[in-house]
């Protein structure tokens, strides 16, 4: 009986050690993807985890498909903060089924968004133009830059995947029958430039675009309702396929944009995994940040500080008060 009290300090010390190890944050890698929104998210994650959770998170170069495949085959990097999963869905699903990967949460909570858009001031003036029927009703407003007999619809640049979908939906909506001609803007910058020019002159504009982007952070746009709802099977099996001969009308389904981790990471770093499950941006929030980066020619690290300093109401919702205090002290 006398041995029990003498063993208590050892038991308590062991229990404390186990609890400390369970709550400690270790070393891991985060993919710094080669596009602005993903790289910004990676920098935000690194700063919050290293300063708020005392992790040792390292940024490593990444790209969409290669990063996903590397995580499945090699278990590295540990985290992909913004992965557009449609393009690699089959491999990701297999990786999750084989317990190599795990979905942590949605980096873009709305998903990537595509559609046919109008300037908000146009819909304010003609509320019916929020629908495709209203756009067709006012087709004559959309002056073609090179023709007096046709109306302008700005499509996706040639060679991009969205050229296929936007052309199929243009045809399914029979816009050519109503006098519209699809204009190839030549490049992403060219397409953005047509929106900026219309906004500066308060002119009508109608065409394809996507979010989050700096353009939709600068200019208020309204997505046109086709009145069809979203037919995911039609979109996958026909709208996205180059050889689809009879496309039907469907709204673009959201593109899932997720944070993916390795299964090993989710087990080893429960606090960091919980953070990733709560962290997410709306398209509008991200579009505004991307517009700020473009206007200020800021890199991702500069934009990270701007975000953490100017938008605490967003990121504090992801973490505890204690963690938020540590992050603010580090800033």
Automatic annotation (TrEMBL):
Q: Does the keyword Metal-binding apply?
A: no
Which keywords does this chain's UniProt record carry?
Answer: Signal
Q: Which InterPro entries match?
A: ABC_Gly_betaine_transp_sub-bd
The answer to whether the entry has keyword Protein biosynthesis is no
Report domain ABC-type glycine betaine transport system substrate-binding positions: 29-310
What residue stretch is flagged as signal peptide? 1-22
Pfam families, per database record: OpuAC
Q: What is this protein called?
A: ABC transporter substrate-binding protein
| Source organism of this protein record | Marinomonas phaeophyticola
């Amino acid at each position: 009986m006398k041995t029990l009290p003498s063993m208590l300090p050892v038991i308590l010390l062991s229990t404390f050690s186990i609890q400390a190890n369970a709550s400690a944050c270790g070393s891991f890698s985060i993919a710094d993807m080669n596009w602005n929104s993903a790289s910004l998210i990676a920098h935000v994650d690194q700063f919050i985890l290293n300063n708020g959770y005392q992790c040792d998170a390292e940024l490593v170069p990444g790209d969409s498909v290669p990063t996903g495949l590397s995580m499945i085959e090699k278990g590295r990097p540990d985290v992909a903060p913004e992965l557009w999963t449609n393009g690699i869905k089959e491999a990701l699903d297999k990786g999750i089924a084989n317990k190599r990967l795990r979905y942590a949460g949605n980096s873009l909570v709305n998903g990537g968004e595509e559609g046919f858009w109008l300037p908000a001031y146009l819909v304010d003036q003609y509320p019916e133009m929020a629908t495709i029927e209203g756009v067709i009703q006012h087709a004559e407003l959309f002056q073609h830059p090179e023709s007096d007999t046709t109306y302008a619809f700005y499509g996706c640049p040639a060679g991009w995947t969205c050229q296929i979908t936007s052309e199929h939906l243009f045809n399914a909506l029979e816009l050519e029958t109503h006098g519209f001609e699809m204009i190839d803007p030549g490049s992403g910058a060219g397409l953005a430039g047509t929106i900026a020019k219309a906004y500066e002159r308060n002119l009508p504009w109608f065409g394809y675009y996507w979010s989050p982007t700096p353009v939709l952070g600068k200019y208020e746009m309204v997505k046109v309702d086709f009145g069809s709802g979203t037919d995911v099977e039609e979109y996958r099996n026909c709208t996205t396929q180059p050889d689809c001969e009879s496309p039907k009308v469907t709204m673009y389904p959201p593109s899932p944009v997720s944070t993916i981790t390795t299964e090993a990471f989710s087990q080893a770093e429960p606090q960091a995994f919980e953070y990733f499950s709560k962290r997410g941006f709306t398209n509008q929030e991200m579009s505004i940040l991307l517009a700020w980066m473009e206007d200020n020619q800021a890199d991702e690290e500069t934009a990270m500080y701007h975000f953490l300093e100017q938008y605490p109401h967003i990121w504090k919702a992801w973490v505890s008060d204690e963690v938020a205090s540590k992050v603010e002290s580090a800033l």
